[in-house]
């Protein structure tokens, strides 16, 4: 049966994190037929060997060297059979069927092209999971040391939309979603094209 969802993981010296991530996916995900795809950016460390023995259903592809985030995920997308793709960091732990619920909500709304979830740190505190683009050149000025901090404060004082959501308490439309958990419809990938290969991130 063709999977509805393809979950893509990229290994780069992930070790135990990767094993715990896959285990949580298998234990927690219900309500959706999915496949697991592992793209290995560090096959020489042997971390994937034990994982594949424990979870033989994983589709595996080793890359010749560390190709980075974008190239590795593009390789996974090329292997994927699902009409919905989830890019998932290997240091995440899935709880409360987050994948199944996110998939269901995304499929219910034809206008949405992508979705994410509220990320949390290990202590349970909220982690930024989505953000807005600021108007015009402000995006580039915000990263300047000291000046960017002052500009951020000033923007908040005059009511400019916050660039990031500290905690999503309900469904919120954002301009971009964290790549740690990024679920996107294949139709959007067809329209936008693959990830930009020069976006490396080890």
TrEMBL record:
Transferase is among the record's keywords: yes
Q: Which GO terms describe its molecular function?
A: transferase activity
Please name the Pfam families in this protein's record: Glycos_transf_2
Boundaries of each Glycosyltransferase 2-like domain copy? Answer: 6-126
Going by the UniProt record, its keywords in alphabetical order are:
Transferase
What is the protein named?
Glycosyltransferase
Entry coiled-coil feature ranges:
none
Lineage of origin: Bacteria, Pseudomonadati, Bacteroidota, Chitinophagia, Chitinophagales
Q: Does the keyword Chloroplast apply?
A: no
In its UniProt entry, the species of origin is given as Phnomibacter ginsenosidimutans
């Amino acid at each position: 049966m063709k999977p509805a969802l393809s979950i893509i993981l990229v290994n780069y010296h992930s070790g135990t994190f990767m094993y715990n991530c896959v285990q949580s996916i298998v234990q927690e995900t219900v309500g959706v037929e999915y496949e697991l795809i592992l793209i290995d950016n560090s096959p020489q460390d042997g971390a994937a060997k034990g994982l594949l023995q424990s979870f033989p259903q994983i589709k595996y592809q080793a890359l010749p060297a560390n190709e980075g985030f974008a190239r590795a995920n593009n390789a996974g997308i090329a292997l994927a059979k699902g009409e919905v793709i989830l890019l998932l960091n290997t240091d995440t732990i899935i709880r409360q069927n987050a994948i199944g619920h996110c998939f269901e909500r995304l499929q219910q709304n034809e206008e949405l092209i992508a979705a994410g979830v509220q990320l949390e740190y290990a202590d349970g505190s909220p982690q930024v999971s989505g953000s807005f683009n600021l108007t015009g050149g402000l995006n580039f000025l915000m990263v300047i040391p000291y000046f960017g901090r002052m500009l951020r404060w000033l923007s908040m004082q005059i009511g400019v939309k916050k660039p990031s959501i500290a905690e999503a308490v309900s469904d919120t439309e954002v301009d971009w979603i964290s790549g740690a958990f990024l679920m996107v419809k294949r139709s959007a990938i067809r329209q936008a094209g693959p990830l930009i290969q020069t976006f490396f991130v080890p």
